[in-house]
Design goal:
The chain is mostly helical and about 140 residues long. It is built from four helices and no strands. The radius of gyration is 20 Å and the shape is elongated.
Length: about 140
């Protein structure tokens, strides 16, 4: 395999990763918003079924709602971190537009949120190997 073929294959894998992680992020948000809506509907209802359901399973209902809110917040926070780290990199002309590992947004996007989820869910490919290649082909 020539260097050009390797570069093309690498670019193709990054594009595939972007599509998969973007779709995963959308699905996660969709499910999380559905859970939040379900929790709200159950908690706000005056129906007898809802009241007995809450009495029997209140801890699980509230836990599901809290985890869904955390999932949504983490997803959007990772978007924000990726945006800020790219913006910072674009201002680093002298350093070849490289990312600063000391920048707080880069740290959170890579070392906190990325490892918390186990992968990059936002489609921004915020990991050390692919961040530069994904945003600066």
């Amino acid at each position: 395999m020539t260097d050009a073929e390797k570069k093309a294959a690498h670019k193709e894998r990054l594009e595939q990763k972007t599509v998969v992680t973007s779709r995963l992020s959308e699905t996660t948000r969709f499910v999380a918003f559905g859970i939040v809506a379900w929790v709200f509907a159950v908690q706000a209802s005056d129906a007898k079924f809802s009241k007995t359901y809450i009495q029997a399973h209140e801890i699980w209902i509230n836990t599901a709602g809290a985890l869904a809110v955390i999932s949504i917040a983490s997803d959007y926070f990772q978007y924000l971190c990726a945006y800020l780290s790219v913006k910072h990199a674009l201002n680093r002309r002298e350093q070849g537009y490289k990312f600063s590992r000391n920048h707080p947004a880069y740290f959170f996007a890579n070392d906190v949120l990325h490892h918390q989820a186990g992968y990059s869910r936002t489609g921004c490919n915020c990991d050390r190997r692919n961040l530069r290649a994904a945003h600066f082909p």
